[in-house]
Amino acid sequence: MIRTDRIVIVGAGLGALYAALELAPRPVLMISPEALGDGASSAWAQGGVAAAMAASDSPESHAADTVKAGAGTVDAEVAAMVTRVARDHILDLTSLGTPFDRDPEGGYVMSREAAHSAARVVRVQGDQAGRQIMETLIAALRDTPSVQVIEGALATRLESEGDRVTGVWITSAHAPSGEVLIEAPAVLLAGGGSGGLYAHTTNPPRIRGQVIGMAARAGALMADPEFVQFHPTGFDIGEDPAPLATEALRGEGATLINKAGERFMLNVHPDAELAPRDIVARAIFAETQAGNRPMLDTRAALGAQVLTLFPSVAETCARAGIDPVADPIPVAVAAHYHMGGVAADQAGRTSLQGLWVCGEASSTGLHGANRLASNGLLEALVYARNAAGDIAGTLPLTEAAPVTIRFPDGGSIPDPDAVALLRQTMTTHVGVRRTANGLKSALATIARLEADHADDPSFLNMTATATLIAAAALTREESRGGHWRDDFPEPNPDLAHRSLIHLPDALAIRTAAAKDAPQCSMLNCPT
Ligand code: SIN
After folding, report:
1. Measured in angstroms, how far is the CA atom of residue 40 from the centroid of ligand 1?
2. Most Cβ neighbours (<10 Å): which of 192, 261, 352, 507?
3. Which of 41, 42, 46 is the best mutation target for the ligand 1 pocket, counting ligand atoms within 8 Å of the beta carbon and taking the most?
4. For the domain that residue 322 is a member of, what is the CATH number?
5. How far away, in angstroms, is 7 Cα from ligand 1 center?
6. Rounded to 5 degrees, what are φ and ψ at 335?
7. What separation in Å is there between the alpha carbon of 111 and the centre of ligand 1?
């Protein structure tokens, strides 16, 4: 056991880095599973940060689009607060050195993305926003002596006394080892979402709901776990994770076609390719299921410019042997963002004393049932600052010596076969289209996997989050935003509110569901 006066930040993505900088000169200990900058979803974000920077735009308009996209469950006060401060964060990132794209007059270049009523996404070198913002923050962090980063360590569980979190257990991220307890005055969870719990995902391999599951297992209140966003255009090139073909391509006029060359979104929604993300995702999924091979066609809209304006997309195309100037890009839906997570108030406080959360691990009420594109990085920035301010307000300013960690022998790493089965189960039965039978069968499988691997805390974090998603999805007998039920295809106005749930309630739903779960294969399930 190690006792420190450092504030522990679990994670190393955008929210974690920004919060560590905001907390300076308060001493911070960051727990990063990979080398700093690797393995965080933020670094893979292509679109950018949504913010009303144009004179013709306003925070009110941005908030209204956020509320509309969220399909009836966005907290309007949260949307107003986040969109109001968005501009300040962009200006602060600019002063830290983020090289946002500028027009000849020096204004920010804005991308258009789905369900935004204006071009409102500030970007960096086309599709490099996540990577470039992270590089800027990492450079600033290297000049911030109050921050100590432990690389190659993974948080496995929280330590509590009553409803107060007193520390976090960590283990080696790369080899089996025992755990070390770090006791700390405050813990900020900033370790990402759950996309990697699905077999088809755009998230980095490490992002598998562990942080959310860890908080749930410690007793924290969860919100909206059933709302998972599937991105319509993951590259369908057999890679795990699936590289992203950013929505900004459709904002530039790229279209979606099938193998017959038909522009199928024209028959689905008046906004066609720029319809809300859940609608486009379900249309793509239907084309894939029907064997129609959906593709993203950038040829007429961008021509050879796709290679220079979208370097990440060009790099993936080159790796997969696709020439986007001559041929459309095969795409499929992929789990992309978890709207649900650890319930947080506007200061990033969780229901547990001593525990804060920001970024995708949190559920703040901003995204509702369907996150508006590029609001994810924005929310991470806003709540990182809010949480840092709140933590700073509760703790005296102290100094703390650097921490030295030596992991004891022992431990294990999650069984790859169990993880693969869990991920396939989530994609098949808790994915884009859900049914009661599929969800019950998934809950039965999750329970069995959990029982078989009860001594592996990291795997238990994954199954806790998977349980929360599937149990809340089973309970929500309607379709809303990213949550679609084939057996309840309409929204129910009585259910236009957020879900709040503790893990024991989800486990009780799981136990009941497993009792009458039908036999489902990965290919079919009785309806
Ligand atoms: C994208 O670039 O399409 C993703 C942006 C986002 O998920 O917010």
Report:
1. 15
2. 192
3. 46
4. 3.90.700.10
5. 31
6. -60, 130
7. 11
Same domain, 331 and 236: yes
Ligand 1-lining residues (CB < 6 angstroms): 45-47, 246-248, 336-337, 373-374, 376
Among the candidates 287, 304, 335, a domain finishes at 335
Please report the atom of ligand 1 found closest to the CA of residue 127: 2
Contact 31, 172 (CB under 8 A): no
Cis peptide leading into 99, omega within 30 of 0? no
Q: Which atom of ligand 1 lies nearest, measured to the CA of 336?
A: 7
Against a cut of 0.90, is the pTM above it?
yes
Look at residue 328 and tell me if it is in a domain: yes
Give the separation between CA 2 and CA 27, rounded to whole angstroms. Answer: 15
Rounded Cα distance between 486 and 496, Å, is 18
Ligand 1 pocket: which of 113, 122, 124, 372 to mutate (most atoms within 8 A of CB): 113
Calculate how far, in angstroms, residue 398's C-alpha sits from the geometric centre of ligand 1: 39
In order along its 527 residues, the chain shows pLDDT tens digits of 999 999 999 999 999 999 999 999 999 999 999 999 887 787 788 889 999 999 999 999 999 999 999 999 999 999 999 999 999 999 999 999 999 999 999 999 999 888 999 999 999 998 899 999 999 999 999 999 999 999 999 999 999 999 999 999 999 998 899 999 999 999 999 999 999 999 999 999 889 999 999 999 999 999 999 999 999 999 999 999 999 999 999 999 999 999 999 999 999 999 999 998 999 999 999 999 999 999 999 999 999 999 999 999 999 999 999 999 999 999 999 999 999 999 999 999 999 999 999 999 999 999 999 999 999 999 999 999 999 999 999 999 999 999 999 999 998 889 999 999 999 999 999 999 999 999 999 999 999 999 999 999 999 999 999 999 999 999 999 999 999 999 999 999 999 999 999 999 999 999 999 999 988 888 778 87
Contact 465, 352 (CB under 8 A): no
Is 436 domain-assigned?
A: yes
Does 279 map to a domain?
Answer: yes
Count of domains forming the chain: 2
3 is an active site residue: no
Question: Pairing between strand 7-10 and 28-32?
Answer: parallel
- List the beta bridge partners of residue 75: none
- How close is the Cα of 473 to the center of ligand 1, in Å? 24
Choose, from 277, 385, 476, 480, the residue flagged as catalytic: 277
Residue at a domain's end among 335, 359, 375: 335
What CATH number has the domain bearing residue 451? 1.20.58.100
Range(s) of the domain holding residue 509: 416-515
Q: Which atom of ligand 1 is nearest to the CA of 376?
A: 8
What is the amino acid identity at position 308? T
**Ligand 1 atom closest to Cα of residue 371:** 8
Q: Whose CA is nearest to atom 8 of ligand 1?
A: 374
